[in-house]
Design goal:
Number of strands: 4
Strand content: 25-35%
Distance between the termini: 115 Å
Structural class: alpha+beta
Shape: rod-shaped
Order of helices and strands: HHEEEE
Helix content: 40-55%
Oligomer: single chain
Low-confidence stretches: none
Radius of gyration: 34 Å
Strand order of the largest sheet: 1-2-3-4
Number of helices: 2
Largest sheet: 4 strands, antiparallel
Mean pLDDT: 87
């Protein structure tokens, strides 16, 4: 068998493969997918950090409120007005007001509102309220 010119062209045209344009399209789609996953990862990291800081703020507020609950009614930390202490990246504040819980017109309790503010503005402030009766 003798190879003729038309047979060689037919053999070359039967070879299958990807063209350069097809490869560029595939690479562009792959790059877009990788960028989407990277953006999702950044969002996930920021959300996890915000949740951690909110959890820490809740724990600080609960701890401060428990510390105030065990104090005597006339302790200086339970004087009327605003009080506060810094706790690392957080500010723990509490406000004490007098209140009437039994409705007889006399102030026989103190309402304590503990608020923890985070230096990172992505985290929400946490507030807990407690009414301490005069015993």
């Amino acid at each position: 068998m003798c190879n003729t010119q038309p047979d060689r062209f037919k053999m070359l045209s039967d070879i299958r493969g990807f063209t350069f344009v097809e490869l560029l399209v595939v690479l562009a789609i792959f790059a877009i997918a990788v960028l989407a996953v990277a953006a999702m990862q950044v969002t996930s990291i920021n959300t996890n950090a915000s949740a951690r800081m909110s959890g820490e703020a809740s724990a600080l507020a609960a701890n401060q409120l428990e510390a105030l609950m065990v104090l005597p009614y006339d302790d200086s930390n339970l004087d009327l007005g605003s009080h506060g202490i810094p706790e690392g990246a957080y500010n723990v504040n509490w406000n004490v007001t007098e209140s009437d819980i039994d409705g007889d017109g006399t102030n026989d309790s103190k309402t304590i509102i503990v608020t923890v503010q985070c230096a990172n503005r992505n985290a929400r402030d946490v507030s807990i309220q407690y009414i301490k009766p005069e015993v």
